User: Fold this.
Amino acid sequence: MNHKKGMRCMVFLMSLFLLVSFCSNTYALELENKDKAIVFALDTSGSMKTNDPDRLAIDSIMQMIYTLTSDYRVGFIAYNSEITMDQMPLANERRNEIMKMTEAIQYAGYSNAGEGLKKAVEFLSNDTAEEKHIVLLSDGEILLKEDADTQASKELYQNAIRDAEERGILIHVIGLGDEMEDMNNAIFQAGEDTGGRTYYTPQALDIQNAVDAILEEELAIKQSTIAMIDASGELETISAELPYTYADKVRILLTSTAPIQNLNTNFQADSANQINGERYSIIEMNEPYGKRIDLSFRGTKDNRVRVTVIPEYRVIPKVEVTYKDEVPTSENSLFYNRTAEITYSFYDLDNHDIQLWTDDYFEHNKLGVTIAEHSEELTLNEGILQKKVSVLNTQTVETSIDYSKLPVNVIGINTADITLEEPPLLPIPEPDPEPEPPYALIIAVIVTAVLLFVIIIILIIKSRKKPPVQEEDKPEPSSYSYAGKLNIYITQTQSGYDIPPLSFNLFRLPPGKVISLKEILENCNVSEEFAGAEAIYFKSGANHNLVITNNSDCTVMKNREIMMKKKSYQITPDSKVDITFEDEISELMFQYKELKPSEMW
Assistant:
């Protein structure tokens, strides 16, 4: 054995894993996400008196304006024979100016959609926003008193469509009334040619459906319905949980097909604002710090009131890089093998000391992460994401984060530059003047061989005496009743498919029933196989607790403590249990929740 090869072996045996760990932290230094701008163009011709006698189009547009997140600038145009009012896009805090403007709208005259769309495109052409939309609402074809004027307006309309297409402006068209029933109507061409959407609403009451579709499908505004109430005409009350810790804004939106009256609220926030329309109400809470909101209102009898919550966060990501260096096995290597572990955490954009999304509500949510053009989805765990990459040389890479799968609206920063440092050189051994035979290595090999021989003999002896495995039975039933439910989060499957969070109502089971985890997953319509789930049993316990017995070879942990096989453990309300199944790939976590009697329905 030559000297270089001998020294290399000794280095490898004595320091198989040399860990050189240090970290670097960085906040993203990019500007906030590019702003967005939207302009509403409303046909206020005389025919709207018939198609929208209650001015529901104006009411729906204002509800949509107030529902938009704070990063939208909003403009407004009203037109009939000519443009009757126009407002270039305004910042979030000035949206009430548009509401005051719309109070003066009168339905009269002809329909000059060419001038209206041209003005909307001009507004957005001069705006610096990266994402731009126009929502145009009309109840008929372009029509002016003189044929020549009608033809000129149609040409303006076509030119405006081409300009919008060139500038990446999406136009969404809402057609109202019988005249717009034909989807080949030229007004709808603006949506088709620019990549926007078209909606036909036979009656003014249907405009709300189109507005909801644009908000959700085109503008990706995240809303969660917290209540659907069939109004009785009497005072209605709602109490809802707000799991949005450190949110910048939370809007509560009430919509109905009839007026909502006597709205009163009780919540905790730094400040708030209430906006009331004809058939909607919005409560905008700035920096709410309470966990609940209480509402009371009086709805019109036999009308349904929908209550939705629109949470909004202002976010800056913090990126931390740590390194793990290992001695390579290749004799010709000059550098350590380096792995960088990149950790993402998220903080309030205005207060970098406040970490976001560490609550259970955000646990196991997915975020898309792109590093140097390689994208994948990572799972939030206690508010952080982690990703490992191999590092060969020093490089600065851009990383970006896609927040779109979160159940909240995110404004702020989604990119950061990360500098990954190259691995250090391996130490160069000093040559020995007179290399000696590797006595230590020879002795170590002999000792290892003897130990392996002894171990094999012991295993053979033990295997002969090993008793046959007995089949485990179910635990004895209990005399208690179930009083809760399981919230189940499947974090990894053998097939690789994602399974959304599950919920299983234990309180619906008969008292004393013993049920396996496999039965619970089958009741939740989970087709994936989880090895060992059939031998993990649950039964009701005293004091509304849950009793778990593990007769499988799965690893079951509660609060980082392993639950012993063939023993039963009490699971108290709000406890979390992690299970790694026998295939050592599939994993899930469940949380036991006790329910009040009023919640068991």
